[in-house]
Records
---
Amino acid sequence: HLAVVTNKGALYTCGDGSSGQLGYDWNEDMGYTTLRKVSLPGTTVKVCCGLSSTACLLSDGSVAFFGGNNAKQSITMLKQCTFIDIACATLTDLFSAKTASSGVYFWRSPTPKLHLKVDACDCIEALLGWPVTYDRALSEILFLKQTLPCNKHGLSHYAEFYGQKQFSDLTLKLKDGDFPAHRIVLFNNSAYYKKLLTESADFQFTDMTSHDPHTYRNLLKYFYQALVKELSWQDLLNLYVLAVNCNENEVVEYTFRRLLDKLDKENIDEITRVAKSKELSALLAECNAQLERMLQPTNNETSSNQESDATKTNQNDTESTLHIRSS
């Protein structure tokens, strides 16, 4: 089914409404391609379509939910918190909503009840419909209220699968050994792998032995959102160079900012040298600007000393003139 929101916040739906997912009484005689307005107690900010259900975020912070229960028309309002965003797992009736206090709640059709218990491997349910091995028996789907920090790295469910063979469906060949990877993670977080997997999904191995294994593992940690340790400036520089070569723009931006924070008089010469040799124009420009800022105190001190010497010379000349006149 399809749901659209107008610029005035009105919701319209069409398609199969046999499970109540359209928000109004529907039968096959009404057709599947005619948009009809859904009556809601407020204006719609965002809408998400599940497999046979629909969730709408309203302007007052409530969520309207309907469908998934074979009812012709049954709209349930979720008002336990003030919500600011909603999301839906593809090809499922699994929904989540974020509150103004950065809490995240999960629920699923046909029981639109917010749940407060979770297991770390519950993310597997959200992967249903994507090209990844799925075994429902591994998760009983218990959900938990969870606080979202500002920094996403090291706190994602993806991090649970970093370097793990569980559900791995792709092997990366590195110089220091094989790395068990997961297509869904790489597809969602890597521009390079997204293109590669889109063009062909038949391969089981990828040769990455041309790259430094330590640096490439740091890149993979970024994809898995598992960068829990602070990287040294050397590691950041190597990761930045690798990301530029692989056209991973998000990683480039991340490492670029972190690298600038670590620029100092001890490492700027080496970073400038690498920037020149690798033709990294943006990094080179920042290094040159930083060098100028570092030299400014020296230049100011030199100017101050010159002015001081000139003042002393003028004073000596004045004293000499007075002495001559006195004589």
Note: The chain has two domains: 2-148, 159-284.
---
Amino acid sequence: MKKIRTSSVWKKVWKFCDFSIFFFKKWLSFMKGRSHFLITAVCRREVIRMELSPKQKQQVQMKFDSYCKKTIKGEVKHYWRELTRQKSKESLFSELTRQELEQLYSMDDYCFDRSYFQVMGKAVEVNDLQIAEAFQKLSEKKREILLMLYFLDMTENEIASYLHLVQ
């Protein structure tokens, strides 16, 4: 490949041609070939390749290194900003006071530890298993009276009139 003075070629390219330079990461594109750097410029229909001098190679490498360092520093700053933003909005459970924890506290209530009894066409829910077992052992009439009295909040007169009993 014939060595060309890059400055004169660039002047010609800039002056006479519509051209595009391929950029590598927003900087001057360089293609690292077998053992040398080439800058490729597309000028209308022909491709012009220019071999860079050692000084120009070093300049391109330094510009690229500088770009990489700036990009990495920018990403690190962005990461730290995002981290501090998250920390300002989030708090750890270990940092919460007891009152704040109690506000967040919730308990799941599953229906397999409940018992249901039918009284007056209504389903009465009993949450305590021991009470539910005790109700199971009672006769149906006694169970109905206790459920009406304690769970349906009926008075003795209302229960007696419903069951047609004397108080």
Note: Residues 111-163 form one domain.
